[in-house]
Amino acid sequence: MVPLRHNLGVQRVTGARQLRPFPALDPEPPSRFTWRRVRWLTLGCGVAGAAVAVALLTWPASSSATRVPASFADSDGLIVFEQPHTLMLGTAAPDGNHPQILSKLSPLQGTDIPAVSSDGRYLANTEGSLVTMGPAGPVSVTTLPESAPGQASGQAWQDASFADGGKYVAATECFQGVNFTDTLVANLIPVDGGDQSVLDTVTDATGDPESAGVLESVPIDPAAAITYNGCGGPSPVPDKAIELVRLGQRPRTIVTTADLDRALGQPASTPLAMSVTPIPGGTLLAVSIAVAIRPTGPGEGSELPGGLGGVVITRTGKVVADLRFPQYTTMVRWSPDGQRMASCQAGRLAQSTVTITTIGKGTRTIRLAGRHDVFCTQLLWSPDGRQLIYAAQTTTKGLTQSDDMQRGWTVIDLTSGQVHNVTAPGQPVAWLTTRGQAG
């Protein structure tokens, strides 16, 4: 039976974890360099240098000859990437130097791009591959246990994220119920083994960074979610609220669609579809919102006739910022300090862009010259929040899905706005700092 809210509680599901440890690797660290220092040899050279400086200051500001190129290497960073065809993991410097395929590690299962835990210690994808990280990158690949709902459906998870820092993987997966009906449920899976917990019927869920729980979008009618939002079915159906569900506790409502209708100036009872993206610490939540159409009969799914953008709320539901995402926005990523949001926009008829939203201070759009991608597949903040990595699906004409993906990535320097394309043998997965990371 599908676990229903408030009366079935939390179900425990046991499963044997198949551990496949591999030896730690110590790839060459990222390249490090500094600009060479110049000494004045004589007072005469100093006078000459001052004259040159005056000349440069008086040169027209529009001259491209006076622009200093941005540095696209982060000396404290490490990129983990996935090689599309082999599904092997690799590492490289952010500027693409020193690429290394980690051939002693098992390949990942599936082709989706893994999620990263907030503490940087784990990666997980929707096929159940769990990657444990060390000071110099990935050190092991294991397989998370398959839950009873997953075994029944035979499908990959709809989504994977992390809860309580990196202690749990929050997986949204198909639950096959009676009469072969199915719906989505939220699961919590400990990364160190142990029992899984089936939490609730949802239309969307992400792990709570603060606790062993999930932030979930609750359907107006669980029966409608079963009928219309099941495994691979039309999505999303209208939601009634965002709730926090923790292990062993009753759900707590954070915000309702009625609250958001009022905040956005929408007519009362406008049906909304919602999804949540928490900041790294979990104190603020970005809620992406779109108008949904209620299904009225068999075979009639939900559509999204118009997006409203989103809001930023506290964990008590207070709206602190209004968001208006540009057209074709496909993902939203918080900066490490939780003060800014990055979103990417890509469509075959439009130039690809990245938009930076500083909460309470407006937005800034950076155009990626020459890029007209199908959609954005990855946005990664550098550990210091000064740069972004962008990757995308570039075509639909490849023989396989991996053929359509951008090889390497595009680095965006947020200080100067300059963009640099990096050639590398895979899709970026994580941008890690190499300082003080536990093994």
List the main descriptive attributes of the protein structure presented here:
439 residues, mainly beta, five-stranded antiparallel sheet, four-stranded antiparallel sheet, 4 helices, 8% helix, disordered N terminus
Kindly summarize this structure in a few lines.
The chain is mostly beta strands and 439 residues long. The protein has helices spanning 43-57, 148-153, 222-228, 257-264; strands spanning 11-13, 77-82, 89-92, 100-101, 115-116, 122-124, 129-134, 137-143, 159-163, 168-176, 182-190, 196-202, 204-207, 213-219, 239-246, 252-256, 272-278, 284-291, 306-314, 319-323, 329-334, 340-347, 350-358, 362-367, 375-381, 387-393, 409-413, 419-422, 427-433.
SSE arrangement:
Layout (H helix, E strand, L loop, with lengths): L10 E3 L29 H15 L19 E6 L6 E4 L7 E2 L13 E2 L5 E3 L4 E6 L2 E7 L4 H6 L5 E5 L4 E9 L5 E9 L5 E7 L1 E4 L5 E7 L2 H7 L10 E8 L5 E5 H8 L7 E7 L5 E8 L14 E9 L4 E5 L5 E6 L5 E8 L2 E9 L3 E6 L7 E7 L5 E7 L15 E5 L5 E4 L4 E7 L6
